[in-house]
Amino acid sequence: MSSRGRTGSAGATEHSIQEALRRCMQQAPLPFAITRGAKHALVYANVAFRRLAGITSGDALGAPISSVLGGTEGQVLRNLLDRALTDGNELTDERIAATDGGASDWHCSVWPVIADNGSVEALGIEIREAQPADAALELQRQVAEQMLLGALRERGFADDAEAGRRRAAFLAESGRLLAESVDQSSTLVALTRLALPMLGAWCIVDILEEGDAINRLGIYHPDPEKQKLAQQLQVTWVPEPEDPFGAPAMLRNARTIAITNNIEATLAATAHTPGNLHLLRQLGIGSLLTIPLMARKRLLGAITFVGAQRNLAYGPEDLQLAEDVAARGALALDNAQVYDLALVLQRSAETANRAKTAFLGAMSHELRTPLNAIGGYIDLLDMGLRGPVTDKQHADFARVRTNQQHLAILITEILNFVRVGSGHMPYAVTDVTACETMQHAIDLVDPLFAQKGLFFDGVTGDKSIVARADPERVTQILVNLLSNAIKFTATGGHIRAECAATTDTVSILVSDTGIGIASEKQEAIFEPFIQLRESLSDRESGVGLGLAISRDLARAMHGDLTVESAEGRGARFTLSLPRAVDPQKGDN
């Protein structure tokens, strides 16, 4: 037989023995019973005990034993049980005098069952009439005692295992609730629902706001009818600085507080109004357990678990569980507050950006009108319509016109940036031959190559590649890329262009041998008003909008603009655009 088979057989035999002993104990001639708790509630009684106590139904189970055994005998037995419960010691053959003159006295033995934490978990009781000892009855008593102890220990192990399972399930559920929170309000709603069945019947959540002001965020009770009372209480019950629990207590000393005694006095001190006191009593207040909500060494508030029973002591496992829940809640609350702050900052930045864009648009329109007038009057004066013009005056007018045209270009860049950012830029998307559009852009800047002393190495790639885009906007992007390459490449440098394609994407590349771009600046150059050279003496012409506008235009056409570069080794910009469908291949 395998070891598993032997183990199963042994378990079955043990169970059979226990069952046989239970049946024997049930029919044993000596009365015995089991009680639990300070009131000595009767949880088990064999036939002999039921006969002794006059119990005819199961209604007596759960009742205090003093009410089951009335009269003086019942009171004396209650006193014995109190002694055994308080001292934790076994009492043997304690005499209980009979009140009926014709009845025999009783000998009562009590056996405390001690739990792992040292507390008395239950009491076993055996009662027999005062008479010479009977060996068979003594054997029965010993067997009953061992069975009682074994059964209670087994039940204790099962209870511990079940309590551990419930705690693990509760922590998992609380973690799920908090993980689903995406902002502060939903996190706080989740916190108010963390009523611990093992620690309390309901809970109170306090949150600290700016200046340590206390907001009684929520009171949650799982009973729908009592939750209505909790909502009424939440409106009128305002925390006060001297309250003995909740956030006020945590502000004085951020540590776990358990209040198990003098609950009535605590209620009177914290209710603040008779109406609140009435609602609290209707909700039912027993022992109180307040845990601070701490995150990053900062007190965020407190959660208070309210028990249904008074004088309920909290064990180490209860405190650990409550602190675990509070730690998870505090972390989620802290994350939610950071998230809310980020949203506020984002909205502020977006509002400021819209205001800046609107201002730039308005000012650009206002500046454009007088600049056009300046250009017009310069042309009139240069033509001699206001009188003879000397050669030196012609030269001066040319300088003024050049600067006027430069300012007009800058204002046009700003207007384009505003239009692209606001989504008001029109696009006429059609088929665009990549290499032809590249060549058109080169023709527009061609004089600048010779002026700067640069070499253009031509356009390479498949000349049949076709993209889907707005040809005017593509030209605008390519002219900007070529202008930047010319601007940042020293005399004698090289510039080249290339067209390439994949199944879905067309790429137009502009490369140079210029100063290059440091890796930490390769994303920043696409931001508005950013230039490689930021000092006034080194700053190139323009306002730093060319690349920002170009990338926005590319993305508006479902493409992108990227850069590859190393400082001192040139740069390569890639304009990506959707590829047009080949009519010979169709949409497949």
Quote the distance from N terminus to C terminus: 68 Å
Total beta-strand segments: 17
**Helix vs. strand class:** alpha+beta
Spatial arrangement of strands, main beta sheet: 2-1-5-4-3
Largest sheet: 5 strands, antiparallel
Specify Rg, calculated over alpha carbons.
44 Å
User: Spans of 5+ residues with little confidence (pLDDT < 50)?
Assistant: 1-12, 534-539
User: What is the helical fraction, as a range of percent?
Assistant: 40-55%
Average of pLDDT: 79
| SS field, number of helical segments | 15
Indicate the proportion of strand residues. 15-25%
**Given the C-alpha coordinates, what overall shape results?**
elongated
Which key terms come to mind for this protein?
single chain; 588 residues; alpha+beta; five-stranded antiparallel sheet; 15 helices; elongated; disordered N terminus
Structure characterization notes:
The structure is a single chain. With 588 residues, this protein is α+β, with helices and mostly antiparallel strands. It has helices at residues 3-26, 47-53, 65-68, 71-87, 135-179, 184-192, 224-236, 247-252, 263-271, 274-283, 316-382, 391-422, 434-452, 471-487, 546-556, and strands spanning 32-36, 41-45, 91-96, 106-114, 120-129, 202-208, 214-220, 257-259, 288-295, 298-306, 430-433, 455-461, 466-469, 494-501, 505-512, 560-565, 571-578. Strands 2-1-5-4-3 form a five-stranded antiparallel beta sheet, with helices on both faces. A hairpin with a 4-residue loop joins strand 1 (32-36) and strand 2. The chain is elongated. The two termini are 68 Å apart.
